[in-house]
């Protein structure tokens, strides 16, 4: 394990909008696991550009978030920002209207970009409420497994 | 241009919301409407039946940018319902946290959203090329404020140490003292910020309106105060907020609009500047003078400059609060309060205007009634009135220029839209 390899895991979303908050629910569950000292967990909520400060000094950042891909609810899709087409709307009226890809774009432009991996989960229901849909509740063990395996891979010193 | 139609894009991620529609025929405005805010009514419904100690956890999630203000206002409403007055230490810690939120929110809005308009770059991403140092300055100031928020609030996104009647964990005096030095060392960056915004050409437009904010006789009211209207100078208790904030429905919007003595009013930095100029820190007054913001000011575009002035004020105020906290010594004040039957109203200035929370509790401490009035809902009618006033003066411009002016005006209000959702929709490159 490399202690200098700083890994940050950030769950994002809004827990008041059912499946939109999947990232936060997953981080709550991950808190129950024991991680090496070089791994830090954050509840990023709907922090928008505030998320940038959580990434400071990290070599690798994992974001766990609800992602609309058109696939069945609970489907887990792991990707990097470069894997998706970006369509940054030029005009903004509010800081509240910032999505994760824009935060990542800003970090990349400012040239202190860590390796960023997005663990996306297809939501079923985004509506006012504090509970997850059954499909997303059922997907939590698989999401955790995906994150743990990815982190484990990064924390393992390759055998000589 | 006697005929002009603009349907200015869908501006939130919630479908069916978020358009500004303007239709001018023969030089006369036939249609002008705007709907850019999510109604908080669903969040109010979520609070019902919850125990009083749970409510602030819910309201802190309404907004990721103004989480401190929502949490503080919620707690104040509950404490009022419980007839509990927090200690001086708790109030000072809350004020320090609120100052941190003002700095980070104003700085983000100013550098990331407002400034790009003046450089014609469309977005902050376009500014990074020629104005990278300015963007980095904004980032450093934002980080400073976020770290102050984390020091007092436990973390900078959705802070967790704010509790009814206390803080669950106090910062160490040494940490506060170190942070004071960091703020002092960053004064140069604030001076540069004032110079940067001084050089931006703010559009000329004036429309005097009613300005509403909290007010205090001996401080620039952010944390608490009576509700003041610029129209009469009259000040009323926050518990009587519905006498001042009269909400009404309009057919074109899912959000309630608000009026008071006239058909619209303004809240936010410019309203506070107009109502409470005397209580600003002298350094903030100097910065206003330097940037050409004169009291009173009726140009809504100058709300941006009023935000810079308030940021200077919050810098200085944070230093004073840290001094006070250190000299008084921090005590552990953790306690359990309630339950008790009652009604309470909390009002706090959020970066974008006065926020109201009202709660009613039954004997067991369960919430039986909740009412939240957010700043942007209060500003909607005023933005529409500004647009009605400014659009006829713009008709000699090209359509694209008119749209830029309109968008800049709306952005100057720093509206809170779509706080609630940020869902990312993706399309893969290789599919």
What do you see in this structure?
The complex is a heterodimer of chains A (160) and B (431). Chain A is an alpha/beta fold. Chain A is built from four helices and five strands, in the order βαβαββαβα. Chain A is globular, with a radius of gyration of 15 Å. The two termini of chain A are 13 Å apart. Chain B has 431 residues and is α+β, with helices and mostly antiparallel strands. Chain B has a single domain, classed as Cytochrome-c3 Hydrogenase, chain B, CATH 1.10.645. Chain B has a four-stranded mixed beta sheet. Chain B has a three-stranded antiparallel beta sheet with strand order 1-2-3, with helices on one face. In chain B, strands 12-13-14 form a three-stranded antiparallel beta sheet. In chain B, helix 4 (88-119) packs antiparallel against helix 12. The longest helix of chain B has 32 residues, at 88-119. The termini of chain B are far apart. The interface between A and B is large, with 56 and 59 residues.
Number of strands of chain A: 5
CATH topology description of chain A: Rossmann fold
Measured distance between first and last alpha carbons of chain B: 45 Å
Q: Label the structural class of chain A.
A: alpha/beta
CATH level-4 homologous superfamily of chain B: Cytochrome-c3 Hydrogenase, chain B
Helix % of chain A is 25-40%
Query: Quaternary status of these chains?
Result: heterodimer
- CATH fold-level label of chain B: Cytochrome-c3 Hydrogenase, chain B
Elements of chain A, N to C (H/E): EHEHEEHEH
- Main β-sheet of chain B, in a few words? 4 strands, mixed
**What is the mean pLDDT of chain A?**
86
Question: Regarding CATH, which class of chain A?
Answer: Alpha Beta
Which second-level CATH architecture of chain A applies?
A: 3-Layer(aba) Sandwich
Instruction: Sum up the overall morphology of chain A in one term.
Output: globular
Count of discrete domains of chain A: 1
* Global morphology of chain B: globular
| First and last CA, distance of chain A | 13 Å
Roughly how many Å is the radius of gyration of chain B? Answer: 21 Å
DSSP strand tally of chain B: 15
């Amino acid at each position: 394990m490399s202690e200098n390899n700083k890994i940050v895991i950030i769950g994002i979303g809004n827990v008041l909008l059912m499946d939109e908050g999947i990232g936060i629910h997953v981080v709550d569950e991950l808190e129950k696991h024991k991680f090496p000292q070089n791994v830090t967990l954050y509840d990023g909520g709907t922090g928008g550009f505030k998320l940038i400060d959580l990434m400071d000094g990290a070599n690798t950042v994992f974001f766990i978030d609800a992602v609309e891909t058109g696939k069945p609810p609970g489907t887990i899709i792991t990707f990097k920002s470069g894997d998706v087409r970006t369509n940054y709307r030029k005009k903004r009226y509010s800081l509240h209207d910032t999505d994760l890809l824009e935060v990542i774009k800003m970090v990349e432009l400012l040239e202190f970009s860590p390796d960023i991996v997005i663990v996306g989960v297809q939501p079923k229901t985004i509506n006012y409420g504090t509970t997850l849909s059954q499909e997303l509740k059922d997907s939590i063990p698989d999401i955790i497994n995906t994150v743990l395996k990815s982190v484990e891979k990064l924390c393992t010193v390759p055998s000589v | 241009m006697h005929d002009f139609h603009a349907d200015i894009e869908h501006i939130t991620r919630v479908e069916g919301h978020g358009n500004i529609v303007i239709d001018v025929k023969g030089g006369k405005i036939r249609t002008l409407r705007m709907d850019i805010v999510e109604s908080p009514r669903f969040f109010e419904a979520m609070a019902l039946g919850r125990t009083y100690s749970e409510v602030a956890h819910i309201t802190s999630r309404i907004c990721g940018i103004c989480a401190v203000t929502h949490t503080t206002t919620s707690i104040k409403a509950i404490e009022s319902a419980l007839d509990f007055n927090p200690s001086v230490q708790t109030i000072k810690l809350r004020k320090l946290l609120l100052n941190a939120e003002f700095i980070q929110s104003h700085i983000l809005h100013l550098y990331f959203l407002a400034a790009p308009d003046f450089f014609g770059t469309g977005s902050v991403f376009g500014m990074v090329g020629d104005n990278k140092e300015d963007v980095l300055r904004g980032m450093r100031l934002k980080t400073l404020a976020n770290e102050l928020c984390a020091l007092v609030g436990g973390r900078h996104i959705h802070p967790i140490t704010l509790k009814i009647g206390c803080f669950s964990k106090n910062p160490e005096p040494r940490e506060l003292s170190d942070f004071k030095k960091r703020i002092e060392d960053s004064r140069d960056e604030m001076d540069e910020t004032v110079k940067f915004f001084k050089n931006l050409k703010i559009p000329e437009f004036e429309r005097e309106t009613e300005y509403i904010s909290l007010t205090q006789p001996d401080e620039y009211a952010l944390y608490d105060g009576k509700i003041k209207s610029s129209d009469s100078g009259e000040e009323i208790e926050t518990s009587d907020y519905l006498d001042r904030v009269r909400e009404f429905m309009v057919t074109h919007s899912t959000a309630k609009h608000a009026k008071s003595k006239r058909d619209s009013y303004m809240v936010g930095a410019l309203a506070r500047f107009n109502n409470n100029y005397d209580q600003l820190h002298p350094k903030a007054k100097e910065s206003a003078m330097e940037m050409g913001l004169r009291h009173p000011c009726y140009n809504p575009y100058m709300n941006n400059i009023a935000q810079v002035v308030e940021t200077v004020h919050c810098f200085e105020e944070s230093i004073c609060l840290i001094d006070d906290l250190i000299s008084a010594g921090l005590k552990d004040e953790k306690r359990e309060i309630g339950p008790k039957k009652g009604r309470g109203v909390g009002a706090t200035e959020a970066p974008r205007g006065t926020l109201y929370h009202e709660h009613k509790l039954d004997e067991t401490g369960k919430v039986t009634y909740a009412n939240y009035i957010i700043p942007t809902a209060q500003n909607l009618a005023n933005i529409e009135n500004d647009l009605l006033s400014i659009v006829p003066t713009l008709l000699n411009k090209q359509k694209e220029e008119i749209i830029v002016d309109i968008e800049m005006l709306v952005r100057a209000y720093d509206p809170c839209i779509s706080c609630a959702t940020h869902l990312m929709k993706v399309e893969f490159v290789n599919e």
